[in-house]
Amino acid sequence: MPFPLGGVRACHTMLLDIIRPSSPEFGSTPSRPAWTRARLTPFTKTVYFALLVGTAWILIATLERHLEISIFGGSSTNHIDTPGAEEAATSTTTPSTSGHSGFLGSIWGSRPQSDDEKTSSSSSSSKPSTTTSPSALLAQEWTLAEFKKVWLATELGGEPVNTSSIAELCDSTTWRSDVALQMVHSRGGIANVRGTILDFLHFAMRTGSSHIVMPAYVKRTDTTLDWMDESHGYWPFSNLFDADFLLETMHTACPQLNIYQSADEIPNTVAVEETFNVPNARSDKAPDQNNEHTVESFRAWLEADGRSGYDALALNLVNVTATLWAYNVGPYPRLRRALGRLCKINPQIRELAATAIHTLRSAHNLSASIDPRAEIYPGAYYGMHLRTEADATQVGWAEAFGGFEAQTDIHLEQCAKMGLNVIYVASGNEEDISRFADKAMETANITVVSKKDLILGSKDRAKLDELTWDQHGALDWEILARSSFFSGPAMSSFSWNVALRRHFYLEDPRLDKSNPYGIQEVVPHVAFDDGLSRIMLRDHLDAIEIMAPNGMFP
């Protein structure tokens, strides 16, 4: 940038005008007035010296600002040519963005910041808005420990959880002290298990059942994935979710509800022999199937003459069958969002997810795109669910909705359109992950990674290898939730749950909440697209698409 000589001349002329009168004739040498020939007093010397120093100061500031140099030392931000140098420079020259650098900075210190500068400088130490791209922030280096601590403190939907809608429901409910509920037959992967647990908690609050047993779900083997066989017993809630978080949150939001770790902890109970099958409360499907009908059905069933084991004067343990998306929660968005937050993934699994994303950030040059304080990472990685596992093949999903080739072709095309170079893939089929990685690199120069590529330390890898099949799903669920864009198949409740979680909890300029299902009119094979997530491979209107939009908790 040219040096502003006009500004220097102006300063010089101003000084001369002060210490001598202007010449009556342009260009002539003026005669010295009498006051300049007299002996200068100490005060006059001080003023004269201050003017000289001030002029020099202005000249130095002008040089440093317009030539972007540091005259008497300090940092310089020019000529960042080596890879990674730009990021290092931005992290080590932060003061130059908010005050003077070089010589003046060492003397004067930082000048007062404008409001915009205060916002910019504070963003490196506080959580950025989810509407602000992390790439717009200063790329900051994080140790693994620092990254994990901040990442774990950041949850989709923000902290703390707003539970006012839960408190309102509990305060408006008439509670009965003669019932302790226990859910049975909760089965499936993480999305289905979450759905049954949240339905159960909703049922307990609606019916005013003062006591419940902490929800558990059926164990399934990693080899057959058979979720109907209950001979292996049940996993506790804490196997997938944060039990302490649930207890603490509900104790504050709904103190009327007492939660016990097991049925054995509930004092003085008698067991009702039969199991209550909870009816649907999907008023969006049938007007008479509503919350009031469900509450009345339970009361009438429990108090019916001859109900074996029921004692109106005792505390009755009642088994209730697990339901999935049995309530029309569309009209209750606040309650829907609040209840969805109760099934927070357990800390050990979330910690592994943080480790994986930290590795992804450093290994694939994504420092400017992934900030642990953000809830979503624009411009970082494409998240996808590849549904080619054995159970999908057994029920014919691969044929009806598209197998390996069809799914991977669509994902690669979508990823390329978005200008992303890294795909994080979630799949239980390790062989297909490897095939996809080769295909993506050969055909599109796109890198494909999974959790096993990112969790490499011996201790963390040992923890990863110890996870059950469904815990692996929970780990993927966490990593996919913060992806730049997510896409999965329509036949997967897992994919729907990731997409709806992002839809309800994230704030992003790309997010369109008006009608994410309208995409079907233009692209029939896509069931859902809100700008952040896409549910694809829609072949026909199936049960998930019928029930999830208004019944699935995010």
From TrEMBL:
Region Disordered: start-end pairs: 82-134
A Pfam cross-reference name: O-FucT
GO BP term, example: fucose metabolic process
Transferase recorded as keyword: yes
Assigned keywords, A-Z: Carbohydrate metabolism, Fucose metabolism, Transferase
CDD domains (alphabetical): O-FucT_like
A GO MF label: transferase activity
InterPro entries: GDP-Fuc_O-FucTrfase
Compositional bias of kind Low complexity: 82-99, 120-134
UniProt protein name: GDP-fucose protein O-fucosyltransferase-domain-containing protein
Organism: Coniella lustricola
